[in-house]
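Example 3.2
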Amino acid sequence: MKLNFLGLPDHPKARLALIPAPLEITTSWQKGTKEAPLEILKISSNLEFFDEENYLEPQDILGFFTYPIPELPFEINKALEFIYNKVKYALSKKQFPILIGGEHTVTLASVKALKETFSDLKVLYLDAHLDLRDQYLESKLCHATVMRRIYEMGIPLLNMGFRALCKEEYEILKRENISIIKMKDIKENMENSIERLEQFLKGGNIYLSIDMDVFDPSIAPGVGTPEPGGMNWYEFLQILKLVAKYNLVGMDIVEVKPNLCNSITEYVSAKIIFKIASYLAEKYGET
């Protein structure tokens, strides 16, 4: 199915690629992530097309190309290979890939593709959870293990916003060199948290993964595993704006569980895509 971001025609020289990744194979609690790309793209046409911070229209400066929403294979490795190939294709066209998930496992496919282009890749993930288990429900490849698999690829990680973990993950943090900034730290000392984030961003190329449960449920209730005490919109924008100043080479938005009676999470997700496009348009302009 072909449905375009903002409801606009694809830009003939688009530098931003929207890649729907409707993966839902390992979701373990509330279902619905498969429908997220469709609902996010549908609702995006209700956004204002002019950015209120930078006073510009990113769709005219950088341009969007929205890839069709695919029917993914039911087998997890084949589904991830399909997503990997889409990201590789976008990179071959010099497009900045923005994956619209889908469960968090899609990040692994995107990171694998980008790692082949950017050997010094780092992953910043905004998430209420660490996703560092070695296996979950007898699976080593799922939404709860995705960052463990990425870390095993030798890719530096920084989590911002976590506020829930299991004992296994606690033990991993004690013995491994994985950077974290708790949501509690962000709330209590945003300035220090931003300084720590900036140290991580310096040097290397950055992949940004946004699990929508990083937000407080009052802002983004439509997620599979909501956790109280999450990020607010302006805390998030402060982080997003800083990340865009560095060598951001790709990103994803994952774990939206659409609710047709309350589409706020889908709207916020679409707004995030527009905001990062605006920050990148301000940075790169028409060069």
